[in-house]
Amino acid sequence: MSDILIQLIWNGLVTGSLIALVALGLTLIYGIAHFIQFAHGEMVAIGAYTFMVFHKLSAWPIVPAALASIFITIVIGILLEKLFFKPVREHDPLIPLVIAIGLSIGIQALILIIFGPNILTISDHSYESYSFLDGALLATPSQILAFVFAVVLMIGLHLFLKKTKRGKAIRAISSNRSIGKTFGLSTDKSMMWVFGIGSLLTAIAGIFLGFEQNLEPLMGVQISVKAFSAVILGAIGSVRGAIFGSFLIGLAESLLVGLGIVASGFTAGIPFVILILMLLIRPEGLFGKRFVSLRQ
Amino acid sequence: MTLSIQNLTAGYSSGPDILHNTCFELREREIVTIIGPNGAGKSTVLRSIFGLTDIRKGEIIHGSRDITSLSTHEIIRSGIAMVSQGRNIFPDLTVEENLEMGAYTLRSKQEIKDKKKDVFQFFPKLKSFRDRHSGILSGGERQMVAIGMALMLSPEVLLLDEPSIGLAPKIIDEVFAKIQHIRDEGASILMVEQNASKALSISDRGYVLELGRNALDGTGKKLLTDPKVGELYLGKKGKKS
After folding, report:
1. Worst-scoring range by mean pLDDT, A20-29, A130-139, B36-45, B130-139?
2. How do the domains of chain B map onto residue ranges?
3. Interchain proximity A183–B101, CB inside 8 Å
4. How many other CB atoms are found less than 10 A from the CB of residue B114?
5. Is A175's CB within 8 Å of B93's CB?
6. B87 touching chain A per CB within 8 A
7. Are B134 and B180 in contact (CB under 8 A)?
8. A147 belongs to a structural domain
9. DSSP secondary-structure letter at A68?
10. Apex CA A258: angle with CA A256 and CA A259, to 5°?
11. How would you classify the pairing of strands B54-62 and B3-11?
């Protein structure tokens, strides 16, 4: 029993890390641009598919293929902001929201046209699992790497936002854009950084997700729905909240299904049940501020 | 002349003109206040100086330099800083981070460190709050943070948009005392105020703006005793002052 538990917790942590990589971008973008970037999940698919093209189809080694795919995803993320979101930046957040939904559907369709509807694998190789704790825990290399990368990136993001001038400027612009202007802070630059960082994180999530599961045109929707729930759960706009919410959802999925409490066919519903419960009990999220007036 | 605004006509994006041919002057080490009713365009004057409006006519000279068409970033570097009205800080940042963002256009880390020290000396209270989120501070403390952010730039010209808004009378006196102190240290101050009597009493000169046009100007004392100003803006009509 405890063996299963260890394995389930590990699986939950890995799923949680991948959700967190997507959730962090969502929460940062919401924080600065005040809309939900519904096409953010599609950046996961872009990361995964471009990696597949370089690694499997063009036979590049993993590291250069990953770097190329991350680079392309970042460029696409920044371009989406410049072309579609920047022109409506001063408008009602409902407008970028609808644009994001349109982009999400458009990118899915594009993937469908280019790669077809079939499920693809990211690599022809299969990798041996490592065994830990006398066989109680089996972990694939990509699981271990995904977890390590996610933790390192979270710490890195935290330090970037708290310690660097650019990071502080991003938080400042998120906090009060018009005052930023009167001190010479550029909203454009901060937006570019946030969309770039968000895309970087999702590309990495996409590559690991490709190793863990398979590639399909709708893969971005599945993870972004979880990430979205995680972000709301933790309090939208909060980095800590997004990380906490992601691990909570990852662990809940793994444990509830693994221990037979919920039938595996209902896995996809778990984030929503948690989300609905949360909204009933504490609508501002776990790390949310109860009094909005504190924000002036 | 530190700042000279000549025949300024300005508005926002595609909107109508808000200022019509207005002129203002700010000399070295002066406190000058612009008063006038709501909607007269007082804030628009400050925002125009700062490159945040659409200037359609006229020019703004700082020292000997024409800054009319410079970007906000360049205007800050030319030695002008602005404290906006109301929500004028970054509530999710700590007091210290707010000050650092005030100095965003400065490049040297040492300079930022020195300036921070100066500002903490000027507002000792802020030093004890340095690690607190500024959003939880009181209105007066927030105004200190906002002014502190501008002081990080050691501006030659400080623009203040309604520094007393929303503050308790006692705090207003404190803020105005600090404003005089900033002038005594060498800055020139152009201020917009609803609280006309208090503002004029510490001002060297004042302007009255009505519907985007210059209506009156003169020394602070003269405007304070001007019957028309008294009637319109100081609430003296039929009441004791």
Report:
1. A130-139
2. 1-79+157-162+189-241
3. yes
4. 12
5. yes
6. yes
7. no
8. yes
9. H
10. 70
11. antiparallel
The interface pTM score, or ipTM, of the predicted complex is 0.88
Q: Which of B50, B104, B142 sits opposite A169 (nearest CB)?
A: B104
Count of Cβ atoms closer than 10 Å to residue A119 Cβ: 11
Q: Which two three-digit tokens encode residue B85?
A: 């009205």
Task: Say if A237 falls within a structural domain.
Answer: no
Chain B residues with beta carbon closer than 8 angstroms to that of A165: 100, 104
A180, B101: Cβ pair inside 8 Å?
yes
Count of structural domains, chain A? 1
Q: Are A2 and A259 in contact (CB under 8 A)?
A: no
Measured torsion, CA atoms of residues B191, B194, B195, B199, in degrees rounded to the nearest 10: 20
- Mean pLDDT per block of 10 residues along chain A (296 residues) reads 86 96 96 93 96 93 96 98 95 94 96 94 80 85 94 96 96 94 94 97 96 91 92 89 95 93 88 90 78 40
Residue in chain A lying closest to B99 (CA): A183
Chain B residues touching residue A183 (CB < 8 angstroms): 76, 101-102, 104-105, 149
Domain that holds residue A173: 20-220
Using a CB–CB cut-off of 8 Å, the residues of A that contact B are: 165, 168-169, 171-172, 174-176, 178-186, 294-296
In a domain, A296, yes or no: no
Identify whether A281 is part of a domain: no
pTM for the structure as a whole? 0.90
Q: Look up the CATH number of domain B1-79+157-162+189-241.
A: 3.40.50.300
Q: Which of B14, B90, B134 to mutate to test the interface with A (most CBs of A within 10 A)?
A: B90
How far B92 CA lies from chain A's nearest CA (Å)?
6
Test A184 with B73 for CB contact under 8 angstroms.
Answer: yes
pLDDT class of B131 with cuts at 50, 70, 90 = very high
